[in-house]
Amino acid sequence: MGGDMGIFKRSRDTSPAAAAIGEFWDRWPDLRERIAAAGETLPTELHEEITLLVHRIHPDLVWEIDPGAPSFTVSGQGVDELRGIAERWRKRRPRREKWAFHAARQADAEALGSKLALGDHEFDLSYVRLGMRVDQARARVDIAAYHPDFLFVDEHTQLQVARTVLVWALGEDDVARWVGDVTIAIEAPMDALPPHLLASVVEQIAEPFRQGAWLKGEGRTPRGHPAQITVRFPLHRQDHPLYDLHVSVTLPYAHSGPDRLPVEPSASALRDAEKQLEERTDAVLFLRETGDGLRVFHLYADSESGVLAELDQFAAAWPEGKAKVDSRQDPAWRTVQPYRP
Fold first, then answer.
1. In what order do the strands lie in the sheet containing 100-102?
2. Per DSSP, which regions of 174-212 are E strands?
């Protein structure tokens, strides 16, 4: 174990975000009553008070309410580092509460037919059309967004419209899961479709990947021996919002061939170990690397859980050499990015 493991085992009550989340929910009963009394338009003072409470959790979080639903959303606007913070806020919600709470913006099909005001321009969203190119290798759909008024506004505004439409069509999490490149079209793309059909296109893309799969690759170790790499695909940050900790478990194996890759009985022992890791409900196994007498399992886990202590016990029980567990904070899941298609 590294010397900084105490950071990850600290009580959740000691972090600034956790304290700010607690403050928000302490204030929520009063806020809820004042929101209900305000009707459709919040007083400036109340709006600023809620903003201050949310920004104390993290300054880049945004919020929105729908008093009619009623629902309250805190969003990291698709930023991976913020998705877990928003989820921790949602997780602390009161259990007997009539309001719905979301940690990402939800789809809103009705809004796709509305008007969107940005700056001094109002966009009739019924004129939006989306060119869609499916990339099966990446399990993504690339989008070319068109609106006739894009001719009259700058690129920043164009992208704001496109991203708003995509979130209303799919919801923020599914945009992050399934949408690839987003570009702006000044002329309507061939075979472009209205945004309300995007969800059905994404459903077709997602269907073959519901169970997930393992992609295999080969390479060389630093010593020049064969290496095997296997990565889970697809793997979406949004499916595991609290998993902000990268953990590597390194197991040496005693039996290998001339290529330094495992043979029996080590091969069976490694398969059994992998099965135990895959069956965990507090972590997700996403990558394994094998070569030069070592297999390294990479997982993402919740830094506020007791997973590290249990993985230490798992490693201590490994019979074929001295196993090792290392961890570091990785809320953006940067470790897995180089291995993604």
1. 62-66, 71-75, 100-102
2. 179-185
